Amino acid sequence: MKQRVGLAHSVLALALLALLAQDASAQVAEPLVQKALQLFFGSTANATADGEVLAMLDVAITMPLLKLNGTLKKLPELDEPGASDCVKSLIQFGEAGNDSTAAWALMLGAFYTSHVANITTGPPDMFGLRQAFPVIRRVAMAQLVKAWLTRWQRQVPAELEAPLQQLFREFYEAHRVVAIRKGIMEYFHISKAGGTSWCHAAKNNGCRAQVYDSAYICQIGQFDDRVRWLNNTFHAQRTGRGARWGTWGRAQRATEMTTCEKRFEFAAALGYQYFSNEYTLHEGFEDPDNVGTCPQFFNVILVRDPLKRLLSHLKFVTMQMKWDYRNNTLFHNTFTGTDSAFWEEFGPVLVDNYMLRGMLGETVYHYPIGGIGPKQIAHGRAILQQYDVVVDLEAGHDVLDDVIELGVGWPHTLREIHDKDSTKAAKLLNLTYEDYLPSDMARLYQKQGPDVEFYRFGRVLVRLDALLFHVARGLGVQPLAATRLAELAERGPEAIKCGLLRRGPRQLNSTAREWQPNEYADRVNAEMKAAREEAQRRFTQRAARAKAAKLAKAAAAAAQAAEAAANAVVAAADAVSKQQQEQSGARRRALLSVEGAGAEAKAAAAGWGQLAEAVRWNEGAEAGRDGAHVRRAMAGMVAAQGRAGERQLRRVRRRGLGEEGLDRRLALELGLEGVEKEGAEGEDEGEDYGMHVGHGGPYDVYDEL
What we know:
The protein is mainly alpha-helical. The protein has 3 domains: 27-178, no CATH class; 183-516 and 690-704, Rossmann fold (3-Layer(aba) Sandwich); 542-673. The protein is 61% helix and 3% strand. Helix 4 (83-95) packs parallel to helix 6 (134-149) and helix 6 (134-149) packs across helix 21 (449-474). The longest helix is centred in the C-terminal third of the chain and has 74 residues, at 519-592. The protein is elongated. It starts with a helix and ends with a helix. Residues 1-27, 599-605, 617-627 and 652-705 have low confidence and may be disordered.
């Protein structure tokens, strides 16, 4: 019996091996790596384009040397055991021309399976190392692409297709498993590079965050990662009022949680899976060379063409200033005919290599105009290569879908979202951007050279990542092995649970497979909820007060208009009565100067029987006495007309003041104060922007649009 069972097991094993061999041959028959290389790096040679790509590939390949030779201070993954030796081996393979070979692939596979995750051992270990080694992976990918463009003449050797596919599986498994282990994403939000859309996508994919505000900023308030865009001192001198985002110069964060360790402890204790940071990277305030990402988090960044980003940023600020001023004359006088010098004073960080300034910490963020150079370019590129996921907003939705679905495990991508349409907002605000943008934009474009070089490198990193994710998709790999993304998408955000981050963050020494609520989290969440409710209450009160003031102002204007109309009616009546008096006086004088039946006939024909009777009855004094009767009658008629006009005016005033009275009663019921002051012209200079998070908040123009 045991022999038959053993034989059955042997047959089953042979059949399984045959199926695996058949599957492997089928994979080899499909040149997935070759096709993906052609897709992302071109099927035909182009000397100019290939030269630019090769230059950036060399930057990626040699970047770890900056850490090994002491030029770069901070590169956490090379501090892990065996990582530096792996990099040195890769460099040696490249120098000998033996990179992208079977031996090279075998060495890399052994490193990843032993240090991160072994895909042959079944379900991933959720408690392993939280480092996917993205720098080493991109060095290897850059070597592969370089070999394909040069030595291989754009054709992967047939015998290398299978080893390369296996290596891609191991690269992706390391990325996937470490994302699950980390459980919380820090998204570095480069302003006007798709950050609000990314936050919106996080919400659509069910990520836990501190708040999803209407402007989709999605920050952790306690970290003070707010933007510092504008120079408030300069703006106040020009306009006499404060500016939103006017915190340029306040470099240090207003928090004690400035280290990576403290930020992670706070976010993990509260169970967040996602948050955005729109200020700078970390731990570089005192020493800019020490700045970098926090390796405890799953780090994601979106980059964008710097010139497009700059133009978008200037448009956005211009639009928001028009909204905030609520005074077209002030806005027109402030922004019409501006030039680059104006913007270098008003928003220096906006117009001078904004992307690199944010990447390199608080101190570099506040460098003077022209302070960004080759050293900052090299440092920014080195940090960018350490990100778990790099996304290029200009790459197109097909690439973005691969990167987001495979790289993050989100079925809802940016294809579904387009927040903050500046064209629509300009139309609603009756704003023509060209009238208010700098007259010498070309000068500002020319000064973005460092950001342009940084972006050139970022685009190549994105193509390397897209190459990996595209091949992984072709191999049938799923971000979540148990469930397909399409099925999760149909079930909604509650089922997606933030994709690869679905298990949520855990403390480094935690043995729980999922984050669990605790008393600390409950208390802080309750405090934050109370703070948000109080902020909302204050905002509602301010909004009601502003609305009441607006209505009162409109009612007063209506009352004034009605009074003017009534006065016009009275004046017209006065003019008519005066004209009638003059006509009657002329007729009376004519009658008094005529004697006999002719006068009687004329008086009767004119309807002045009383005057004709007076003439017949007595001449001279008697006629004068009856003339006085006529004058008294005319005066009574005018008085009657005046009383009618006054009654009409009182009715008009009651209608106008009735609305104002209603507004005032509403204001009293709401406990509002200073209705007249709120409605006065120019009273918006002192608006309280203290409850803003990032560059959004209840006064954001997009709340109204």
